Amino acid sequence: MATLARPIDVLYAKLGDKVKENVSLAPYTSARIGGPADIFITADTSAELGRIVKILWKQEMPFTLLGGGSNVLVSDKGIRGVVVLNRAKAVKFHAGDQPKVTVESGVVFSNLANRCASKGLTGLEWAATVPGTIGGAVYGNAGAFGGETAGCLTSTELLTENGKETFTAEQMGYRYRTSILKRGELKAIVLSAEFALKNSNKEEVTVKIQQFSAHRKATQPPGASMGSMFKNPTGDYAGRLIEAAGLKGTRIGNAEISPLHGNFFINHANTKAEDIRALIRLAQKTVKEKQNVDLELEVELIGDWNV
User: Is the pLDDT of residue 204 over 70?
Assistant: First the structure.
């Protein structure tokens, strides 16, 4: 009687040495925190990403898609099952009176903003300080300095269970830091995106980026972090609420609520994810007690967590 192939054997058969086992995820996250992935596969193009995901869906193997690794906190125990690292980075500019750019979802948003500036194209300057990838930005409606993904995205190519589909920004159901993908209303991954730009000149766009970068440097801490930990409540700022609660500079283990900005939690080397989570709970509990505000996470906790 023939033995059935294990799911991982199917992956090895179809993807060969792209499949790795027991890979530490800390180097692939902006916070430099996280345990191992059972199975780790890198996609270098959007076509390859699509092929890998189709195989995983067909094998009914759950997977986590990782881009720049910002906005996520990976558990110390790591992630059971498959992690797909998105390194699809093709960029194509379209010149004309209404210029635009088409980018694969593994492109780092800040790099794209700087490339636009070098060509004298305006519209994405706000993204010059966004550490994540295009895929993450489309998924979570990333934003900064008054700009957001929903405001400049013209369309995105998604892989759904029906195949490749193009969605407009309106169809993505964007709200503050969320979309139909983040809310789990559609099973799909982001393959690429198209953004509307405007013609300008290199100097003007570069100056704007430098101003945003200088402002970020003055107000946000250096060091390994996940980005903004909590969403800003309506009409207020999570950082202000945490500061008012007297929590700036609070440490648990090697994790610290930044003394510079209360909404950034810093890894001071070899920090445990559980220490970051303890700080998250402390901030939520204290702000609720002192200001009666529920802080909602912007960062996603992924992996194998104790309840």
Answer: yes
User: What residues contact residue 299 under an 8 Å CB cut-off, 6+ apart?
Assistant: 71, 72, 73, 226, 227, 228, 229, 230
Q: Do 81 and 103 belong to one domain?
A: no
Span 50-76, average pLDDT: 94
Check whether 223 has a pLDDT greater than 80: no
Residue 177: CB atoms within 10 A of its CB come to 18
**Displacement of CA 109 from its chain's centroid (Å):** 10
pTM of the predicted structure, to 2 decimals: 0.90
Q: Within a 10 A sphere around the Cβ of 187, how many other Cβ atoms?
A: 11
37 token code pair: 């992935």
Helix (H) or strand (E) holding 82: strand 79-86
Enumerate the active-site residues. Answer: 177, 228, 298
Which of 86, 116, 142 finishes a domain?
86
| C-beta of residue 85 within 8 angstroms of C-beta of residue 43 | yes
**The domain that contains 184 carries what CATH number?**
3.30.465.10
